[in-house]
Amino acid sequence: MAWPLEGLIVAERGRTLYEKIWDSRLVAEDEGEALLYVDLHLLHEVTSPQAFAGLAARRLSVRRPERALALFDHGVPTENQQAGAGAVRDPEARAQIEMLTANSEAFGIVRFDMGDPRNGIVHVVAPEQGRTHPGMTIVCGDSHTSTHGAFGALAFGIGTSEIEHVLATQTIRAEKAKTMRISIDGTLAPGVTAKDMALAVLARIGVDGASGHVVEFAGSAVRALSMEGRMTLCNLSIEMGARAGLIAPDATTLAYLEGRPAAPRGEDWRHAVDRWAALASDADAVFARDIRLDGSAIPPMVSWGITPAQTIAIDGRVPDPAAIADAAQRIVAERALAYMDLRPGTAIAGLPIDRVFIGSCTNSRIEDIRAAAAIARGRRIAQGVRAMVVPGSGLVRKQAESEGLDRILVAAGFDWREPGCSLCVGMNPDRLDPGERCASTSNRNFEHRQGRNGRTHLMSPAMAAAAAVTGRIVDLRDL
């Protein structure tokens, strides 16, 4: 018989981690558009000048200056930073640095200047300072703000007009995204890293595979990652088309945060830990999409094309566009082959390289430099190769030097630099020359990304170091 529905109580389904953070920071909602409170606003010199100019034009103040942090990373040279803006040869970059200095001073925003060991890439500095906490909303005028999702924070990049809005109101307009879970289980093979995991996901789902979603990374292989590895994974979620990436906080998160300068202390720490314990997706939470990968089957990965999804295993061969069924993807593959000067069927292993870059907000932390130094120890970079290592912050640089990693790298022929975005973005003196092929630990291999007509192959720090000492792309497990 049919039972009447009147009076029937339907249990509400569980919430995802994203939904919990969203609900906790929701100020107002109207017809699908929401206003979220912002816990941390990160500023750098390139995307902030127009926003501050907008405030001045409207005679507005910064609503919560204590919830902002100003840093210098995109346009800074990676040499002679003690000279400050005077070391910056490009007049536009120098003007941007001087404007952020003046604006942060005028509005009472904490700033770490060039040459200050606390300065560096925004997405390296905020976590190491303990400014990034689980459950926060974090924004920055930089797409790779998703990095902070490694701590269970909802973090995403915003545009210049949005920067102005956050400065003035400490809120951001947003549309709620769909949810997606990517579970990676199993034990990673030796030599396989979080960078390989991210590139394997990209090869599987593509650069728009997570479009319109916030991705939560889960599974035993993700849980086994260090915080550095988790930051790498969430950093690259934006390359999948995701609005943000998330990993639920756990004991690894707490161990990283405890005792850092801006982390809670004493009783505040204990209360914070209690709050953060609830920041996990409920067992009955429903995701719009659910994808699983076997982490034990992931090999070292290398990009061959002009998107991070155009990636293959180190023992793979460059694909033939004629075999690609989708017309749009086939066109992109043909364009990639022409730009990268490759032929279908070419083995990626053995491809000669000219430059090596170890750095960027993806892979410039102490763990990354240790991995590169482990390969470089007792070896020399190949003749004709130029290789550079750029720490993500002054503190990472100091720690590496205290461990003797700089001496190992310099003895091997690497150029040991000061912190900054460097060769990742091509907005400073570190750039590829036309036609140069680079083994890079950065996040994007777009056309001209690292310099006009430069050719970028994305890979892990150990793989990049292996390329440096052999002069070609190789399987680091063979060394």
TrEMBL record:
It comes from Sphingosinicella soli. NCBIfam families: leuC, PRK05478.1, PRK12466.1. Heterodimer of LeuC and LeuD. It catalyses: (2R,3S)-3-isopropylmalate = (2S)-2-isopropylmalate. The keyword Transit peptide does not apply. This is 3-isopropylmalate dehydratase large subunit. It holds the Pfam family Aconitase. Belongs to the aconitase/IPM isomerase family. LeuC type 1 subfamily. It is an enzyme of class 4 (lyase). One of its GO terms (molecular function) is 3-isopropylmalate dehydratase activity. PANTHER family: 3-ISOPROPYLMALATE DEHYDRATASE, HOMOACONITASE, MITOCHONDRIAL-RELATED. [4Fe-4S] cluster binds at C361, C421, C424. SUPFAM superfamilies: Aconitase iron-sulfur domain. InterPro entries: 3-IsopropMal_deHydase_lsu, Acnase/IPM_dHydase_lsu_aba_1/3, Acoase/IPM_deHydtase_lsu_aba, Aconitase_4Fe-4S_BS, Aconitase_4Fe-4S_dom, IPM_dehydratase_rel_enz, IPMI_cat. Catalyzes the isomerization between 2-isopropylmalate and 3-isopropylmalate, via the formation of 2-isopropylmaleate. Its cofactor is [4Fe-4S] cluster. It comes from the Bacteria.
